[in-house]
């Protein structure tokens, strides 16, 4: 069944009909009756930038689909130092299935909207629906592939290539249009970008200034980015 044709299906919950992330996320494989059952347990929550969504080593009580915004994942060392280890965008799945505690801290990098579902409810539905389990496995493997690609970025690319790669990552997720020009607000501060890329704040600022001077990008209000030509930006990624 092509779930895209049920956008105006009265059998689909109203909230699900208006969810832009549904078809590409885990709910894209669910039948209308399954969406109805799941919607009875879910709730949509909005959190401002900076809000903690899940704490490292804390018990997992629920999972979530990212509907809008960006979530940053961090790991904390024993001495309190933190490292950003990943970013999540719509329609990514927030949480690790079948585990007792969270392996990372999840924090809203921007204002976010999440569709939360209790752990027991989702795991019960997974047990009854092989297609849902398959979709979540696909998402997990995609994130693993992206993490491996990012290891190459951090381990082998120059500072200029790292900053360009970061901008390309954000552009493709926050403005997924097919246009060569993309427009978005940076979900991370420059200090967080430096942390994510393993660079100094000064280096990040210098490389952004170089991209702007070369007219690859424009930056307004220190956060809004215009990419004039995605092909040129991709070339700068190395």
TrEMBL record:
<protein>
    <submittedName>
        <fullName>Crp/Fnr family transcriptional regulator</fullName>
    </submittedName>
</protein>
<feature type="domain" description="HTH crp-type">
    <location>
        <begin position="157"/>
        <end position="231"/>
    </location>
</feature>
<dbReference type="InterPro" id="IPR036390">
    <property type="entry name" value="WH_DNA-bd_sf"/>
</dbReference>
<dbReference type="InterPro" id="IPR018490">
    <property type="entry name" value="cNMP-bd_dom_sf"/>
</dbReference>
<dbReference type="Pfam" id="PF00027">
    <property type="entry name" value="cNMP_binding"/>
</dbReference>
<dbReference type="InterPro" id="IPR012318">
    <property type="entry name" value="HTH_CRP"/>
</dbReference>
<keyword id="KW-0238">DNA-binding</keyword>
<dbReference type="GO" id="GO:0003700">
    <property type="term" value="F:DNA-binding transcription factor activity"/>
</dbReference>
<dbReference type="InterPro" id="IPR050397">
    <property type="entry name" value="Env_Response_Regulators"/>
</dbReference>
<keyword id="KW-0535">Nitrogen fixation</keyword>
<keyword id="KW-0805">Transcription regulation</keyword>
<dbReference type="InterPro" id="IPR000595">
    <property type="entry name" value="cNMP-bd_dom"/>
</dbReference>
<dbReference type="GO" id="GO:0005829">
    <property type="term" value="C:cytosol"/>
</dbReference>
<dbReference type="InterPro" id="IPR014710">
    <property type="entry name" value="RmlC-like_jellyroll"/>
</dbReference>
<dbReference type="InterPro" id="IPR018335">
    <property type="entry name" value="Tscrpt_reg_HTH_Crp-type_CS"/>
</dbReference>
<dbReference type="GO" id="GO:0003677">
    <property type="term" value="F:DNA binding"/>
</dbReference>
<feature type="domain" description="Cyclic nucleotide-binding">
    <location>
        <begin position="26"/>
        <end position="143"/>
    </location>
</feature>
<keyword id="KW-0804">Transcription</keyword>
<dbReference type="Pfam" id="PF13545">
    <property type="entry name" value="HTH_Crp_2"/>
</dbReference>
<dbReference type="InterPro" id="IPR036388">
    <property type="entry name" value="WH-like_DNA-bd_sf"/>
</dbReference>
């Amino acid at each position: 069944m092509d779930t895209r044709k049920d956008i105006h299906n009265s059998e689909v919950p109203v909230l699900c009909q208006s969810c832009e992330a549904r078809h590409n996320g885990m709910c894209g494989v669910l039948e209308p009756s399954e969406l109805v059952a799941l919607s009875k347990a879910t709730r949509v929550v909005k959190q401002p930038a900076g809000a903690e969504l899940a704490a490292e080593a804390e018990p997992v009580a629920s999972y979530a689909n990212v509907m809008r915004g960006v979530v940053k994942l961090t790991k904390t060392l024993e001495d309190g130092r933190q490292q950003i280890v990943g970013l999540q965008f719509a329609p990514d799945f927030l949480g690790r299935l079948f585990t007792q505690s969270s392996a990372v801290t999840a924090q809203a990098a921007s204002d976010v909207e999440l569709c939360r579902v209790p752990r027991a409810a989702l795991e019960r539905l997974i047990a009854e629906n092989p297609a849902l389990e398959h979709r979540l496995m696909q998402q997990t493997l995609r994130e693993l592939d992206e993490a491996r690609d990012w290891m190459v970025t951090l381990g082998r690319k120059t500072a200029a290539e790292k900053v360009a790669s970061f901008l390309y990552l954000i552009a493709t997720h926050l403005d997924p249009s097919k246009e060569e020009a993309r427009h978005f607000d940076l979900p991370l501060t420059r200090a967080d970008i430096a942390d994510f890329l393993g660079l100094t704040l000064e280096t990040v600022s210098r490389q952004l200034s170089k991209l702007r001077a070369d007219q690859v990008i424009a930056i307004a209000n220190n956060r809004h980015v215009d990419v004039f030509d995605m092909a040129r930006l991709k070339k700068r990624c190395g």
